[in-house]
Amino acid sequence: MAQNLLDTIWATMMDVLPIALVIIGFQSLVIRRPIPNIKRVGFGFVYVLVGLAFFLLGLEMALFPIGKLMAQQLTAPEFIMGVEHVSGASNSPDWNQYIWVYVFALAIGFSTTIAEPSLLAVALKAHQVSGGVIGVWGLRIAVAIGVALGIALGAYRIITGTPLHWYIIAGYVIVLFQTLFAPRMIIPLAYDSGGVTTSTVTVPLVAALGLGLASHIPGRNPVFDGFGLIAFASLFPIITVMAYAQISDWWAKYH
Amino acid sequence: MPSAFLKTLIGSFYDLLPIIVVIGFFQFAVLQQPIPNLLEILVGAFFVLIGLTLFVQGLEMGLFPLGESLAFAFAKKGSLTWLLIFAFALGFGTTVAEPALIAVAQEAAKVAAEGHVIEGTQQARSDYAFGLRLTVALSVGFAIVIGVLRIIRGWPVQYLIIGGYLGVMMMTLFAPPEIIGIAYDSGGVTTSTITVPLVTALGVGLASSIRGRNPMVDGFGLIAFASLTPMIFVMAYGMMG
Asked: What is the per-residue pLDDT across A90-118, written as a single tens digit (0 to 9) for each?
């Protein structure tokens, strides 16, 4: 385990190395001024490194094996139709037999987003910059609802085998209309929240779900149909965050 | 210090609680199975808790102040050229080595080989994957440059984003179908856990140090650009391939 931890710390350091080189390079060659509170910032960087390493290793140990196994078991034909009904390849289940898959997609999308460190970072910053108007939990819950809906709909798409781009384009049209009506200050933050949702915690589990679905459903090719869940998970939070601002605006006006 | 640590620790526990509830519910109520390797899972969960707590502490101490002090230093220096070069280097440098992107690029090479877009050889595949990584890294560098320029000039974010969406839709019509899913996903994988706080602090710092800019309206949006441009660039890459 100590070896694993060292490996993970090493991998995280390699991951950070390009960022560190860029910053140190520009700091010493272009800005030519020491970083204020350099010691504190340095310690902070070490905290981030060690923290991420522990976080990733812990996910590998605790969450990913059981989460991936779950995704496989829930999408297996034996679970969907009951063992006695799995006779031939001919009887493929209807989309509405996958009820537990949708519930799982909703629940796992929501809960992993709440634990996503980069979303937490953006929420803390937004709370600070907005002078407390935007709540840390309010924003995170809005984003998490978006990811949950996105992944559930993405699972439905894989199950029905409908083309990805129609969903994405419809989503863009909704975003476009909301942009016209949403409070101006939320718009950049809403757009940003699409990109921050899908990282360390969410992606591996969601990918396992997509792969499980695409490899168990007759007629789906895991190589082609497994993609696209991440795209849903990045699109829907934009919609829900703008909706959150619109609803709180409306609430403040009439109450 | 210890009380701040304890407060963050409790906060992290609440952050992780939903996952614990979801996994527990599905394991016991739906799949009706016992938890395998309980000890390892408990140790892992403890690591996740400690890791998240340290990360949040380090965020406030290191990444946020660093991003802000860089923004202030560049604003004080007043050289737009250097700022844009820095923006490009930050976007490109943080993306090209991103593990999630490396994984997606390899997956994409497999898809391309199966769709007979490229030859099935190992060499062709790794060339394709490397080309894709460079493409995405270039597109993120480009995105941060545009995003920083936008903060400085005060352009409204929605016109650029909507323009970008129209670009994605147009490209979707012409791109080969097998690249579309990968292109859409590549927008989500580019922004890592360390890049996001740094870039956010940089944007907010720039917007607060330039007169007439509102950090809320102008400071956010960099991440949005970094998730949008890879989609366009990857589809273009697929069309050239």
From this structure: 455 676 778 888 999 999 999 999 999 98
Give the ipTM of the model, two decimals please.
0.88
Task: List, in sequence order, the alpha helices (H) in chain A.
Answer: 2-26, 38-58, 64-75, 77-81, 99-114, 117-129, 136-160, 164-181, 187-196, 202-216, 222-225, 229-254
Note whether A107 contacts B30, CB cutoff 8 Å.
no
- The Cα A99–Cα A154 span in angstroms is 14
Radius of gyration, CA atoms only, chain B? 21
**Closest CA relative to residue B240, chosen from B182, B170, B189, B174:** B174
H-helix or E-strand spanning residue B144? helix B122-153
Q: What is the distance in angstroms between the Cα of A240 and the nearest Cα belonging to chain B?
A: 15
Structure tokens at B60: 């406030």
A191 with B25: Cβ contact below 8 A:
no
Sign of CA dihedral A6, A7, A11, A14: positive
All residues at 6 or more sequence positions from B195 whose CB lies less than 8 Å from its CB, including other chains: A19, B94, B95
Q: What single letter denotes the amino acid at residue A231? A: A
Q: Strand, coil or helix: what is B119?
A: coil
pLDDT tens by residue, B63-113: 899 999 999 998 888 889 999 999 999 999 888 877 778 877 887 788 778
* B96 touching A (Cβ < 8 Å): yes
Amino acid present at B241? G
Residue B100 Cα, gap to closest chain A Cα (Å):
8
Which residues of chain B make contact with A122, given a CB cutoff of 8 A? 196-197, 200, 223
Does B199 contact A at CB distance below 8 Å? no
Please give the Cα distance from B131 to B231 (Å, whole number): 15
Rounded distance between C-alpha atoms, residue B203 and residue B225, angstroms? 12
